[in-house]
Amino acid sequence: MSDPSIAIVLHEALYITARLAAPPLLASLATGLIISVLQSITQINEPSLIFLPKVVAVAGAVMMLGGYSVTILTEFSHNIFSAMVHVG
Predict the structure, then answer these.
(1) Which of 2, 23, 3 is nearest to 72 (CA)?
(2) Domain boundary assignment for the chain
(3) Is 16 helix (H, G, I), strand (E, B) or coil?
(4) How far is it, in rounded angstroms, from Cα 49 to Cα 37?
(5) Do residues 32 and 54 make contact, with C-beta atoms less than 8 angstroms apart?
(6) Which residues of 17-42 are buried (b: 16+ CB within 10 A; e: fewer)?
(7) Residue 63 to residue 37: CA distance in whole angstroms
(8) pLDDT digits 0-9 by tens, 18-44
(9) Where does the chain cross the membrane (predicted)?
(10) pTM for the predicted model, two decimal places
(11) Residues 6 or more apart whose Cβ sits within 8 Å of residue 60
């Protein structure tokens, strides 16, 4: 593999990482924001109150997008292994 093709593969890997990490992170961000607003409205200052809703939101996002994630990773792995065959 030449240097430009390695850069393209690395760019694609980082792009796929961002695409797969974004939904759980956004779910966690939205849940944290909603719970923080509710805590400030009700003046409940319990720091451990936020963890369970975040865990549930992230688990739900991962479960809902699990098939999508596996499809993208399988396609990327297939492309990488086929590129390795062409090199060797």
Answers:
(1) 23
(2) 3-87
(3) helix
(4) 12
(5) yes
(6) eeebeebbeebbeebeeebeeeeeee
(7) 26
(8) 999 999 999 999 999 999 999 999 988
(9) 20-38, 50-70
(10) 0.79
(11) 27
